[in-house]
Design goal:
- The complex is a heterodimer of chains A (114) and B (111).
- Chain A has 114 residues and is an all-beta fold.
- Chain A has no helices and 11 strands.
- With 111 residues, chain B is mainly beta.
- In chain B, strands 2, 4, 5, 9, 10 and 11 form a 6-stranded mixed β-sheet that branches. A 5-stranded antiparallel β-sheet of chain B has the order 1-3-8-7-6, with no helix packed on it.
- The radius of gyration of chain B is 13 Å and the shape is globular.
- Classes of the chains: A mainly beta (114), B mainly beta (111).
- At the A-B interface, strand 5 and strand 10 of A face strand 5 and strand 9 of B.
Chain lengths: 114, 111
């Protein structure tokens, strides 16, 4: 099993450009998440999908859109990138019951917006 | 809004020393987790605590959930360079609400 995979690993964008971050999991998990991690800020939730066909906003959704393409894949789209979106983006999927859940994280996508 | 406060933010110690990291909130959580993140990688779950007062041990790491389920601590005995990393606590309020993460404690253990 590959677990949670993310592409690309690194990306440099100019302000105003768009891009899609891809995430896939092969563990048959229902719930998937997108976080951003900035220095000194921990992990902040952007969007999540509790099950195929549903998505919900997290703490910092502005400037992002998501698509739960199928049970395996959950993509994050930046329509018009801004320097404030420079960050490391992590995708995660969730296993287990609610109080004993485990989130499995991908290796991250490092994004620089100039 | 960060509902979980972690302290200290940074910690640099010598190999063999003991340390404690704290995770505090004014909110009650149904469960609380600790993750460790190494440079260039995603966080990895260390432990989940669900009962007030619960203590769990993982080799040299001891995790405790406060009696009121508002706080938690992570104690490392005889720290080793391999313990170096970012330690994140994360709490769940109830049901299917998403996890809330603290800002993390960055630990450096010097040989």
């Amino acid at each position: 099993n590959a677990g949670v995979t993310q592409t690309p690993k690194f990306q440099v964008l100019k302000t105003g450009q768009s891009m899609t971050l891809q995430c896939a999991q092969d563990m048959n998990h229902n719930s998937m998440y997108w976080y951003r991690q900035d220095p000194g800020m921990g992990l902040r939730l952007i969007y999540y999908s509790a099950s195929e066909g549903t998505t919900d906003k997290g703490e910092v959704p502005n400037g992002y859109n998501v698509s739960r393409l199928n049970k395996r894949e959950f993509s994050l789209r930046l329509e018009s990138a801004a320097p404030s979106q420079t960050s490391v983006y992590f995708c995660a999927s969730r296993a287990g019951q609610v109080r004993q859940e485990t989130q499995y994280f991908g290796p991250g996508t490092r994004l620089l917006v100039l | 809004t960060q509902l979980l406060e972690q302290s200290p933010q940074f910690l640099s110690i010598q190999e063999g020393e003991n340390l404690t990291v704290y995770c505090n909130s004014s909110s009650v959580f149904s469960s609380l987790q600790w993750y460790r993140q190494e440079p260039g990688e995603g966080p990895v779950l260390l432990v989940t605590v669900v009962t007030g007062g619960e203590v769990k041990k993982l080799k040299r790491l001891t995790f405790q959930f406060g009696d009121a389920r508002k706080d938690s601590s992570l104690h490392i005995t005889a720290a080793q360079p391999g313990d170096t990393g970012l330690y994140l606590c994360a709490g769940k309020h109830s049901g299917n609400t998403p996890l809330v993460f603290g800002k993390g404690t960055r630990l450096s253990v010097i040989a």
